[in-house]
Amino acid sequence: MRETAERNNSLLCIGLDPDPDKLPAGVSIARFNRAIVEATSDLVCAYKPNLAFYEAHG
User: Fold this and answer.
1) Using an 8 Å Cβ cutoff, are 8 and 37 in contact?
2) Is the per-residue pLDDT at 58 higher than 80?
3) Where are the chain's structural domains?
4) What is the predicted pLDDT for the residue at 4?
5) pLDDT tens per residue, range 13-27
6) Which candidate, 16, 10, 15, places its Cα nearest to that of 44?
7) φ, ψ (nearest 5 deg) of residue 5
8) Three-class SS string for 21-36?
9) Which end of the chain, N or C, is more open, meaning fewer C-beta atoms within 10 Å of its C-beta?
10) pTM as predicted
11) CA angle at residue 18 from 44 to 26, to 5 degrees?
Protein backbone atom coordinates (compact mmCIF):
# COMPACT_ATOMS: atom_id res chain seq x y z
CA MET A 1 0.00 0.00 0.00
CA ARG A 2 2.86 2.36 0.76
CA GLU A 3 4.26 1.85 -2.74
CA THR A 4 0.88 2.58 -4.31
CA ALA A 5 0.40 5.65 -2.11
CA GLU A 6 3.77 6.99 -3.22
CA ARG A 7 3.21 6.14 -6.89
CA ASN A 8 -0.25 7.79 -6.93
CA ASN A 9 0.74 10.54 -4.49
CA SER A 10 -2.44 9.75 -2.57
CA LEU A 11 -3.61 8.51 0.80
CA LEU A 12 -7.20 8.22 -0.41
CA CYS A 13 -9.05 4.97 0.32
CA ILE A 14 -12.34 4.25 -1.44
CA GLY A 15 -15.02 2.22 0.31
CA LEU A 16 -16.64 -0.40 -1.93
CA ASP A 17 -20.09 -0.90 -0.45
CA PRO A 18 -22.59 0.70 -2.84
CA ASP A 19 -26.30 1.02 -2.15
CA PRO A 20 -27.92 -1.60 -4.44
CA ASP A 21 -31.04 0.57 -4.73
CA LYS A 22 -28.98 3.34 -6.32
CA LEU A 23 -27.14 1.22 -8.91
CA PRO A 24 -28.01 1.72 -12.57
CA ALA A 25 -30.61 -0.77 -13.80
CA GLY A 26 -29.10 -4.10 -14.78
CA VAL A 27 -25.68 -3.37 -13.28
CA SER A 28 -24.41 -5.84 -10.68
CA ILE A 29 -22.52 -4.79 -7.57
CA ALA A 30 -19.39 -6.50 -8.93
CA ARG A 31 -19.62 -4.68 -12.26
CA PHE A 32 -20.26 -1.34 -10.54
CA ASN A 33 -17.28 -1.81 -8.21
CA ARG A 34 -15.04 -2.91 -11.08
CA ALA A 35 -15.90 0.31 -12.92
CA ILE A 36 -15.03 2.35 -9.82
CA VAL A 37 -11.67 0.60 -9.47
CA GLU A 38 -10.86 1.02 -13.17
CA ALA A 39 -11.77 4.72 -13.06
CA THR A 40 -9.82 5.52 -9.89
CA SER A 41 -6.85 3.14 -9.73
CA ASP A 42 -4.37 5.92 -10.46
CA LEU A 43 -5.92 8.25 -7.86
CA VAL A 44 -6.06 6.18 -4.67
CA CYS A 45 -3.82 3.97 -2.56
CA ALA A 46 -6.41 1.44 -1.40
CA TYR A 47 -9.95 0.11 -1.59
CA LYS A 48 -11.95 -1.03 1.42
CA PRO A 49 -14.70 -3.56 0.86
CA ASN A 50 -17.08 -3.72 3.82
CA LEU A 51 -17.29 -7.41 4.80
CA ALA A 52 -20.67 -7.04 6.54
CA PHE A 53 -22.14 -5.46 3.39
CA TYR A 54 -21.08 -8.39 1.22
CA GLU A 55 -22.14 -11.00 3.77
CA ALA A 56 -25.60 -9.45 3.78
CA HIS A 57 -25.77 -9.70 -0.03
CA GLY A 58 -24.43 -13.25 -0.28
Assistant:
1) no
2) no
3) 2-56
4) 93
5) 999 999 989 999 999
6) 10
7) -60, -40
8) HHCCCCCCHHHHHHHH
9) C
10) 0.83
11) 115
